Request: fold
Amino acid sequence: MTPTTAICHDGLSFEVWDGAYEPAEDSFMLLGAALAVAPRPGAALEIGTGCGLVAIMLARAGCHFVVATDVSAQAIRCARANASRLAPDVHLVASDVFSAIKGSFDLVLFNPPYLPVETGGSEEVAWAGGGTGRDLIDRFIAGVAPHLRKGGCALLVQSSLDGLGRSRTMATQAGLGFHVLERESFFFESLYVVRLSR
Reply:
């Protein structure tokens, strides 16, 4: 498969194929937060890896066991192509949020589709989060606790358009701590990286 485009990060070239989310501001916010909190060595899980950039950079930074998932078969193939060149030990798994995941991790990451738009086609699956923008956010918060080791944390990207307060309430109900690590404002929204901790 020929890459649709290629991006460079930290001196490395990443192919981005059709069907794989191209890293953008939200991806780099998540990566920066992950590198700041990631245990080294440690086990990390990235849900919705897209082209694999975040998972690959975590592996290269010293996380000894990294699993990356995506619901898109094309994204898995793209991430696998990048990982084979840049971080061959990253494990790629096709999974719809936690559907194919067993075990627990020190760090779980998710940059979900969070825009309040109904998914109308395959090209929108990477950014359309349903009518409220929360379709996958709610599933992630409800399902993450069993996949966190004691002392572990999850990092979640969220938009100001889809209810930060609801996420806080859901996290509290799930027995998780909730803390906003980063905030960045854009012309129509603010983006947050939220830490959920056991």
Q: What stands out?
A: The two ends are 41 Å apart (CA to CA).
